[in-house]
Amino acid sequence: MIDPVDIRLFDERMTTMTADSILRERGHKGKAKRSVIDQAAATVILQTALDAERTRGSAPGESMRGSNE
User: Fold this and answer.
1) Rounded to 5 degrees, what are φ and ψ at 46?
2) Which among 25, 29, 48, 51 has most CB atoms closer than 10 A?
3) What SS3 class is residue 46?
């Protein structure tokens, strides 16, 4: 049996635009940029969540626990 896991919602709007900007600054263009944009956006989401947790001392995002109870 797997213990319940707290699922959290985290606002990921604008992460693709942020990733696009970072990739452009680092010289990625065209197909090279398109092939890694989703990976870069995922990295932005994770880093933002980790930074928020470190700053606040609590898990980032909105907990879904109890929303169906």
Assistant:
1) -65, -45
2) 48
3) helix
Evaluate whether 40 touches 22 at the Cβ level (below 8 Å): yes
Q: pLDDT tens, 9-33?
A: 888 889 999 999 999 999 998 988 8
pTM: predicted TM-score of the whole model, two decimal places = 0.73
Place of tokens 């879904």: 64
Transcribe 2-51 into DSSP letters: PPP---EE---TTHHHHHHHHHHHTT--HHHHHTTHHHHHHHHHHHHHHH
Average pLDDT, the chain: 88
Residue 28: other Cβ atoms inside 10 A: 17
Residue in this structure with the two tokens 């609590």, named with its chain if needed = 58
- The C-alpha atoms of residue 8 and residue 65 are separated, in whole angstroms, by 8
